[in-house]
Amino acid sequence: MSVATSKPLGAARRWKKPPFIKRPLLRWGLILGALIYLVLATASIEVNWLRVYEGLDRGWRFVLAFSQPDFISRWTDIREGMIESLVMTVASTVVGIAISVPIGLGAARNIAPLPVYLICRGIITVSRALHEIIVAILMVAIFGFGPLAGFITLSFATIGFLAKLLAEDIEDTDKSQAEAIKSTGGSWLQWINYGIQPQVMPRLIGLSMYRLDINFRESAILGLVGAGGIGATLNTAFDRYEFDTAAAIIITIIVIVMAAEYSSGVIRARMQ
Amino acid sequence: MAVTTNNYGTKVWARRTSAKQNAIWLGWFSGTALFVYCWQQINVATTWAFVWDAPRIAGDLVSRAVPPRWSYINELWLPIWDTLNIATLGTLLALFMAVPVAFLAANNTTPSKLLIRPIALLIIVSSRSINSLIWALLLVAIIGPGMFAGTIAIALRSIGFVAKLLYEAIEEIDENQVEAITATGASRLQVLVYGIVPQIMPAFAGITVFRWDINIRESTVLGLVGAGGIGLQMQANLNVLAWNQVSTILFVILIAVIISEWVSAKVRGAII
Questions:
Q1: Fewer CB in 10 Å around end: N or C, chain A?
Q2: How many CA atoms does the CB half-sphere of B106 hold within 13 Å?
Q3: How are the residues of chain B apportioned to helix, strand and coil, as percentages rounded to the nearest 5?
Q4: Of A129, A137, A147, the CB nearest to B254
Q5: Cα distance between residue B132 and residue B208, in whole Å
Q6: ipTM of the assembly?
Q7: A-B C-beta contacts closer than 8 Å
Q8: pTM as predicted
Q9: Domain that includes residue B19, residue range
């Protein structure tokens, strides 16, 4: 018997965690490529450490400003800016949803013919690719300064978000329900209204509430390019190094966003 | 569902009780009133003479912007490379900070529900509420203009996004696997590495690529406040009203965003 001399099974081989990417060549290639990219990318950033060091002092003052924000000295500006932001948010969300629904219908492959589908997808792609600020610059150039430019910008941005998700949701709907309505001899409108709409409505409401949140957050920056809202006040506060006022504005934004997020969460929970 | 009796004594079916019907009506009424009020506010703040003039101005802009000056593209390779680096390095930087925050915020991994979880949630909310342009504005004021400020701004904004989605993924893990690892006598760290991490890895990779894609779009405009990237060129051209070069930049941004979206969709499709 050779029991005494044979090694216990598995002593030489230890268990190793299986790697995330299984093919070794691909794995090492990706790691090497990532390393090279990291070196190149880091090299492209020039950091003026002296300037950063000098800035730390100002940064600390900004952090301190949060412990004693100054709501009072610029209160009228803050209040007017906030109201303008909220007004733009509500108006643009309503109009944005109204435009998104037909475009969303057109961008769903299962109910729209190909030419309509391509046009609607094109609109969505352009709206999603261009950042709100870029659209706002163009709108200010065309419509002049003020909340109207911001309102149009946010409505346009809402289309890219809402119509895309609505279209994807429509493509995921249960076919048999829509088929049932069609077989009763319903018109196209009845088919959409009774076959598709009940299936996507809860999600559409949830997405609309979510977009309301996003639109408010975005409306806070449109003022930087003159499209109305609180952004102009915030920009001025930073330019003058009035960090206590800037802190007050940022705290107000955070509180409103939290309130909006909480209430939209409650509404979404009740809808589903 | 409700059944009411009409004047003739016959029973009539209605979808909702009259109290519910009234509540819905009131909801629509107040919603409409709010929208009309908001529109009125925008109306007051708008100089309509400029708006009536808008089609002419828009036509003028288009005639200046088309055709784009294609030869200008050669000057845009470096800014595009910078933009890509801001987005990528910003996302990486954000991951290092977001992962610990996510573990501290998740209900099932947080060390203390009373003390640490609220702090982590506050970090997430503040980071999410403030737009990356506002972060950039702030950082440019503190550490001076340049790509470094842009990278940090992208990172600060991304922390909240990544941490929020990641902690939701952590809360949805299968507890049985964690229990199985714990039952073998593993330490807390081993439970984390072998019980939790493999479960959230696909979600983590998906979230990262998703945020990277968003960050590409955001970093195209950071230059408008002096934080580096292709936005700097856009600002310079807008200032001298070189619309045919602006349209070239817009075209390049559109292509870059579409490519990044395609890459991100492919990677997410491969992971999930």
A1: N
A2: 21
A3: 80, 5, 20
A4: A129
A5: 17
A6: 0.83
A7: 149
A8: 0.84
A9: 1-40
